[in-house]
Design goal:
Chain lengths: 761, 137
């Protein structure tokens, strides 16, 4: 499995180069990779249906318990089939859609890498690994949404999607870490065994909330749904793949995967069902007000994701079964419809509004066929798999009349959208100015196969239920004999489905008038989460700008003041809290020479600050340095003294050279500021002194100097211990120091050369 | 334009300062000194020339670009750690051997090479800065 993901990534990164060699067939060749994965997965069908799972573990960071662990059980097998199968068809589709486009190579890279990341999400058995792949999918989806990056709105949509999903990702990480800590392992298989422990823990609710936020942002639940309609700026193949069948399902997948560990409690039920129902209705209402093909589909996707969340929230075995069936049906028909929308847009040179499309059935017969099949499946027409899925959904809601009524309303909206996209653009008269021709074969295959599958699967829904749905539900810990049936007798669900169909037909005929009313409702969104998101965004940027303009004034004295003040406050606070302030015992007596030198240094400091010319200040500072060299000499450190003297002489020289060109010496700050500066300077000196004295009081176990004294001559052939330490015992430190020196010199000379031409020092 | 006394003194002091710097370098292991002070003294020698005459004149005296000198110093210092690796010891372990020269035997070792590297690096760095600043004036 790791191999499969690895090959996908490799293929992704080879795609641009391959595109330069074989522009016409790259996408088709690339599609062979997911096709191969699909074939391999189908080969695993026997094992997975029997309830066995395939595991693969590659050790990675042992100390943190992080392994590259992969697991293929019913649920991940199901999703992996969807990802690879639909991925292959989307790649074929891309060949036609982007033929001749210069950036096709880049697009193929992004979409293949996305496919690999998505496979990683569903196959990973380690929660941190899931998170890594999760973030990778956000990243590649950002690149795909912003693909036509010349358009400002595309960039903005991509950024918004990235920010929302990444913010959710942060919450998710926090929740996953809590889960790992509470459950005691990072491995999903181990965590699923710990369900009882996890659910009873005191931190269950915060952890659940965090994970839910993460999954909700990814799967566009209310209030995080607003990025999905905007994401329609992505090219059609990307939308068909990401925003209908794979990426947005990642949240649903994770919630389903963690269901045995987290699910079943009232909190789980309430949060998920509430969010699900809210999203379902919001999506449906939004869909009623849209007029472009892709936004219609996007809004119904939001609604469908809400339905899946709601079914997960209900959590009974039949609900889970219904959810899996619905995921399957939805993936098929939504991908088809997106591809059809893309084909229409491609062939009519960019026309996407349903008001201006019509009568394309003669020009695009195959596309019409695929679109009609998918549209009817979406609406829940009887012989289609969408109908089967809706039936099992309604069966699961048996006993909750309000939810069933809501489902009926939503179903009506789906019917409307299904007809709007699958029927309306192809029937009726051709509006003036609309020219179209049939899409190339590569763009016809996808819709036909997927649309036709909607019909075929319904015919075989028994075996499908047994082979596909059962292992998936079993993996979530709810073994159930699948009851997917086309006809289960005259009962409530059937009546409700029929009612929804009729309502849908009625709504379709009143679509125009309905749209304006729905638009008014949508206008309320001005106060909704999208507005909140952009307000927060602007607020953060504004705050950053204000803070930067206040802290980064460009004046060196401001920076030094701030640094010194922070250092004094923090170090001083630490000193006081640690109680190390009895410094004045055990100090050596001060001899007269030291006292004299100290006084001279103090006088020199005073002269530095109070002199009237720059040169005098520099000389006075040099005197401070020489005084220190004298102190070193008094304390018996000749190397230090020598080095300090030479360094001081050269520093005076360098400063004199450097300061020569500054403008006339004059006072730049007011007396009050200078008093404040004095306080800060004295404070920092005092703090450092106290720190030094406190440090003296801390005696290490054995002073390291004993070792040096003993071994300096014997092992290192040197009598000058200081030098021996520098070039032998601690040579690595010295190496670092001279590297820093060299870098400083490079930097300084680069800066000086830059100003050389400008005539300004 | 500097005074005649200064220029003459600088001219006369150049060679002694260089000799002193090399003395510090070589004697550093047994008496106060070492690569750092040596490099600083050598740099001071050339800086004096730059002050008294001209940065260009000092550069000509130096004949190598100070930046290259610093880089060469770094390289030598790094390389001095390599023999230890060949002998299977950790990087920068001091390897000593005895070199007979007439009646005397010298203890030579990789720390000396390291010190030479330090010397060149410090001198190169200092001269880069001094020449750059002097030339801007």
């Amino acid at each position: 499995m790791a191999l499969a993901i690895g090959i996908c990534f490799l293929a992704a990164f080879c795609a641009p180069f391959l595109y330069r060699l074989l522009p016409k067939w790259t996408a088709g060749l690339l599609a062979l990779v997911p096709l191969a994965i699909f074939a391999w997965l189908t080969g695993q069908a026997a094992g997975v249906s029997g309830g066995r799972s395939l595991s693969q573990i590659i050790p990675w960071i042992q100390s943190l318990g992080l392994d590259l662990a992969f697991r293929l059980d019913g649920l991940s097998w199901f999703f992996a089939l969807l990802i690879s199968g639909i991925g292959a068809l989307v790649l074929f589709y891309t060949q036609g859609y982007f033929s001749g486009h210069p950036k096709q190579g880049g697009f193929l890279l992004c979409i293949a890498a996305f496919m690999a990341s998505m496979l990683g999400v569903v196959l990973a058995d380690n929660i941190i690994l899931v998170f890594v792949f999760w973030e990778l999918t956000s990243f590649f989806s950002y690149l795909l949404i912003g693909f036509s990056h010349e358009s400002g709105s595309a960039r903005q949509a991509a950024l918004q999607a990235l920010l929302v999903t990444s913010l959710g990702g942060l919450f998710l990480l926090a929740g996953l870490i809590m889960l790992g800590e509470i459950g005691g392992s990072w491995s999903i298989s181990a965590l699923l065994e710990q369900g009882g422990v996890i659910r009873d823990h005191t931190h269950y609710l915060p952890m659940l909330a965090l994970i839910c936020v993460g999954c909700f942002t990814k799967s566009a639940q209310v209030p995080f749904h607003f990025w999905l309609p905007k994401a329609m700026h992505a090219p059609a193949p990307a939308s068909a793949y990401l925003h209908s069948s794979t990426m947005v399902k990642a949240g649903i997948y994770l919630l389903a995967r963690l269901h045995p560990a987290l699910g079943g409690t009232t909190e789980w039920g309430v949060i998920l069902t509430a969010a699900g129902v809210a999203t379902f209705l919001t999506g449906a209402i939004m869909a009623l007000g849209q007029h472009t093909l892709k936004s219609l589909l996007a809004c119904t996707t939001i609604s469908a994701l809400g339905a899946m969340t709601m079914l997960l929230g209900i959590g009974s075995p039949s609900a889970i079964q219904a959810m899996i069936a619905f995921v399957l049906a939805h993936a098929f028909y939504k991908a088809t419809l997106f591809m059809v929308a893309g084909s229409i847009e491609h062939e009519t040179s960019g026309e996407t509004s349903i008001d201006r499309l019509g009568g394309l059935r003669k020009a695009m017969p195959f596309t019409f066929a695929g679109a009609l099949l998918a549209g009817l499946s979406m609406g829940g027409f009887p012989p289609f798999f969408g109908f089967v899925a809706k039936e099992s959904w309604l069966h699961a809601l048996d006993g909750a009349p309000w939810l069933m009524a809501t489902t009926a309303l939503g179903g009506a909206a789906y019917m409307l959208v299904g007809l709007s996209v699958g029927w309306k653009p192809f029937t009726g008269g051709i509006p003036t100015g609309l020219h179209a021709c049939e899409a190339p074969w590569s763009m016809r295959i996808g819709p036909l196969i997927l649309g036709g599958s909607g019909l075929v699967l319904a015919g075989f829904c028994g075996p499908v239920g047994h082979a596909v749905v059962e292992p998936a539900t079993a993996a979530i810990g709810q073994p159930l004999h699948a009851h997917l049936r086309l006809w289960s007798g005259w009962n409530m669900p059937l009546l409700i489905s029929l009612a929804a169909l009729v309502m849908g037909g009625v709504l379709f005929s009143m679509h125009g008038r309905l749209r304006s009313k729905a638009r008014a409702l949508i206008g309320l969104a001005r106060f909704g989460p999208a507005a909140a998101c952009s307000t927060v965004f602007k607020g953060v940027l504004g705050f950053a700008a204000w803070q930067t303009s206040h802290l980064q004034t460009g004046l060196l004295r401001g920076y030094i003041r701030l640094i010194m003040l922070t250092a004094i406050v923090l170090a001083g606070a630490a000193l006081i809290r640690s109680g190390m302030l009895e410094p004045f015992e055990g100090l050596a007596p001060v001899s007269p020479q030291l006292a004299i030198v100290a006084v001279l240094i103090a006088v020199a400091c005073f002269a530095t600050v109070h002199s009237g010319s720059r040169l005098r200040s520099i000389l006075a500072m040099g005197f401070v340095g020489f005084g220190m060299a004298l102190l070193f000499a008094f304390f018996g450190a000749p190397d230090l003294a020598m080095t300090q003297m030479v360094v001081e002489a050269l520093t005076v020289l360098l400063m004199a050279l450097a300061f020569h060109h500054l403008p006339v010496f004059r006072h730049r700050s007011s007396q009050r500021t200078r008093n404040a500066d004095l306080v800060i300077a004295l404070g920092s000196g005092l703090t450092i002194t106290l720190m030094m004295l406190a440090a003296l009081a801390v005696q290490p176990a054995t002073p390291v100097s004993d070792y040096y004294v003993e071994n300096s001559w014997k092992a290192a052939h040197g009598r000058n211990i200081v030098n021996v330490i520098l070039v032998d015992f601690r040579a690595l430190d010295t190496l670092g120091e001279i590297t820093v020196l060299a870098i400083a010199a490079l930097g300084a000379s680069a800066l000086l050369k830059r100003c050389a031409g400008k005539g300004v020092p | 334009m500097t005074s005649l006394i200064f220029r003459t003194a600088a001219h006369l002091l150049f060679v002694p300062m260089l000799v002193f710097s090399i003395y510090f370098l070589l004697a550093g292991h047994q008496t106060p000194g070492g690569g750092f002070v040596g490099g600083l003294m050598g740099g001071a020698a050339f800086s004096l020339q730059a002050l008294a005459f001209d940065a260009a004149a000092a550069r000509r005296r130096l004949r190598i670009e100070p930046g290259r000198m610093a880089a060469a110093g770094l390289l030598i210092a790094l390389m001095s750690g390599a023999p230890a690796l060949f002998l299977g010891k950790p990087f920068l372990t001091g390897i000593w051997f005895k070199a007979p020269l007439g009646p005397l035997t010298f203890d030579l070792g990789t720390p000396l090479v390291f010190d030479i590297g330090v010397y060149l690096a410090v001198m190169g760095v200092l001269l880069t800065l001094v020449f750059a600043l002097e030339e801007k004036g």
